[in-house]
Amino acid sequence: xxxxxxxxxxxxxxxxxxxxxxxVVEHLREYLLDLQDEVRWDELFQRTxxxxxxxxxxxKREIAAGRAAPLHFDEL
Length: 76
Prior knowledge:
This protein has two helices and no strands. By secondary structure, the protein is mainly α. The protein has one domain (about 5-65). The protein is elongated and about 70 Å long. About 0% of the residues are buried.
């Protein structure tokens, strides 16, 4: 995002009354924290992706070979 865009947003927020500015800032803070969580989740998921593919392939081989049985919730 360019500094011009940020400056425009700041001017828009500054044009609001103080209580509204505080609301906008709080909403932005929550939104940014959610975005950071999403980025961390995506990074973690990408790191485990190869392992998940490997386990899925192994499970398919086990099923095809008849060495797997359905797992029912009440058996856990």
